[in-house]
Write a structure and sequence with these properties.
12-stranded mixed beta sheet; Serine Threonine Protein Phosphatase 5, Tetratricopeptide repeat; CAP_N; alpha/beta; CARP_motif
Length: 371
């Protein structure tokens, strides 16, 4: 198509709006929104223009796009498996919409992409091969005589246009017609650096307002935002029905004294958190260099798009299910069980080997020599 970008622009706008709904402070039903937002790129299969267009073939494109959304869709299934069957049915319906719904449709009708009309407008069905019909040879008319050759040199001067110049030509003409120093201010003695009384070179600026302490937004939860260099943050008045959301903190430490429903740490750097008990899940998203200590129990710990995570588990939390995606440098510390109370460090693998055996792929972590 001549204007492929304009054709997919409405879809791109919807995808951008859906992604914006998942950014910033984590909204309610975040996993639902993230599942939908990450699955929308599958609809861009209609923009496939050939094997050299930079996209996978339509069927493979739909499958790859759904793999991005399946991580959060599975979170919905796990979270509401024993709580609300409507959410479980919603997650299953979303998956059926793409896999096998859209995938099978594209595979059956447009495995090589859509076929466009002659004007690049409407989509037409795949053309069927037909026997060519013989055509009678057309009688060609003799070509018209060639025009006379133009002279190489002309002695006539082209007439100058009396129309005033416009655009950038007018700007350059105005600049060239004025003296070079026109419009410049004269530097007086008191304006020179050697005569200035204040030569410290310090640029004054207003200091940013300090971030607020942990704030209880409602009965349902707490929010800790944009804390920098705070080592004594604490949440004391909490219960098992409340959630804790931490966003944009740097070089700080938070202690949660009590049982809460869930804890989410989002876009934090060099951040430490200590908590006792979590009813549902503890999540780390988009972080860099975090340390987490669980003093009680947590059934699920999720680490997503994080670089550098030191996780300390107590004896009661050794049965926790740890899920990681797009993360690296994850080390889990567990008690040794001895009287000295030392910790034993376990590094979670971040490299895997995928081998095709017996008609299916098997995945195993990479093991280095001496490990």
């Amino acid at each position: 198509m001549a204007d492929a970008q304009g054709f997919v622009k409405p879809l791109s706008d919807v995808m951008a709006k859906a992604t914006a709904m998942t950014e910033g402070r984590r909204p309610d039903y975040f996993n639902h929104l993230k599942s939908v937002a990450d699955s929308l790129p599958a609809l861009a299969w209609v923009a496939f223009l050939g094997k050299d267009c930079g996209m996978s073939f339509p069927t493979a494109h739909v499958e790859e796009s759904w793999q991005m959304a399946e991580f959060y869709n599975n979170k919905v299934l796990v979270e509401y498996r024993n709580k609300d069957p409507d959410h479980v049915e919603w997650a299953k319906a979303l998956k059926d919409l793409y896999m096998p719904g859209l995938r099978d449709y594209v595979k059956k009708h447009y495995p090589l992409g859509p076929v466009w009309g002659p004007a690049g407008g409407a989509v037409v069905s795949q053309p069927k091969a037909a026997a060519p019909t013989p055509k009678a040879p057309a009688v060609k008319a003799p070509p018209p005589p060639a025009p006379p050759a133009a002279p190489l040199f002309s002695t006539e001067k082209s007439p100058k246009s009396s129309k005033p110049k416009e655009g950038m030509s007018a700007v350059f003409q105005e600049i060239s017609s004025k003296p070079v120093t026109a419009g410049l201010r004269k530097v007086t003695d008191d304006m020179k650096s050697k005569n200035r009384a204040d030569r410290s070179g310090v640029v004054s600026s207003t200091a940013p307002a300090p971030a607020a302490a942990p704030e209880k937004t409602s009965r349902a939860g707490w929010v800790v935002e944009n804390q920098v260099g705070k080592k004594t943050l604490a949440i004391d008045d909490c219960d098992s029905r409340q959630s804790v959301y931490v966003y944009g903190c740097k070089d700080s430490v938070l202690q949660v004294n009590g049982k809460v429903n869930n804890i989410t740490v989002d876009k934090c750097t060099k951040f430490g958190i200590v908590f006792k008990d979590v009813v549902a899940a503890f999540e780390i998203v988009n972080c860099n260099g975090v340390e987490v200590q669980c003093q009680g129990t947590s059934p699920t710990i999720s680490i997503d798009n994080t670089s550098g995570c030191q996780l300390y588990l107590s004896k009661d939390s050794l049965g926790a299910s740890i899920t990681s995606a797009k993360s690296s440098e994850i080390n889990v510390m567990v008690p040794s069980g001895g009287a000295d109370g030392d910790w034993v460090e376990h590094a979670l693998p971040q490299q895997y080997i995928h081998s095709f055996k017996d008609g299916q792929f098997t995945t195993s972590p990479v093991s280095h020599s001496g490990a």
